[in-house]
Amino acid sequence: MRLLIMGPPGAGKGTQAKTIGAHYGIPAISTGDIFRSMKTADTPLAHKVTAIMESGGYVSDEITNEIVADRLAQDDCEPGFLLDGYPRTLPQVHTLEEALAGMGHPLDAVISLAADEDEVVKRLLKRAETDGRSDDTEATIRKRQQIYAEQTAPLLEVYRRDGLLVEVDGLGPVEEVSQRLFAALDAHASPSSVPSAR
Ligand code: B4P
Fold first, then answer.
1. What CATH homologous superfamily does 2-187 map to?
2. Among residues 36, 127, 143, 180, which one is catalytic?
3. Whole-model pTM?
4. Which of 10, 41, 75, 195 could bond to 120 as cystine, CB 3.0-4.6 Å?
5. CB 59, CB 49: distance < 8 Å
6. What is the per-residue pLDDT across 37-96, written as a single tens digit (0 to 9) for each?
7. Is there a catalytic annotation at residue 161?
8. 160 is catalytic
């Protein structure tokens, strides 16, 4: 199973990715987590990545693509993977396409987790109180939403056109969202099992 999960910051990608990964027995790979884990490293690259994240911007495609390529080359990705938060730009979409072609395995589905801006801002401000993530200030959250709308939301159309998009409402309790998501993935995998609308 080769999956992507996309959605605005705070839609719950990371939250759902863990459940999906465990369900299918595949690694859930979050570029956000990989970059956050660099925070404690004392290298020029780690300092650069941390400064970009704290400003609410996107890490460069060059750095991001290289890190993802390294991760996908690891043995545990052989049976499949779920990429959480990647791709976020058109060059990342193209790089992933080339990597998948090289592996000889296409994507099975792209999950689009939707949540409106007021809800995601509310969630991230709450997370700021509990977890203290340094990119969860109100100004940074708004900037991240804006960059998502400009650079990442249009990519959903690419996957819709390819017939891969599985749209899921991210509002409501976490378990309800998970149930909705698995039902949508099952329907995508076996469209004939869904009652015809006609
Ligand atoms: P990410 O780590 O991907 O973070 P995110 O978009 O903020 O979070 P996510 O949607 O996963 O929300 P979560 O489940 O945590 O990115 C962080 C930064 O890394 C980016 O801004 C960028 O700088 C950099 N980056 C990452 N990937 C990159 C790429 N490909 N290219 C360039 N730069 C990249 O949920 C949020 C909160 O909501 C949590 O507190 C959670 O508990 C809560 N929540 C979840 N589901 C809920 C529900 N149903 N109801 C109520 N609350 C819920």
1. P-loop containing nucleotide triphosphate hydrolases (3.40.50.300)
2. 127
3. 0.92
4. 10
5. yes
6. 998 999 999 999 999 999 999 999 999 999 999 999 999 999 999 999 999 999 999 999
7. no
8. no
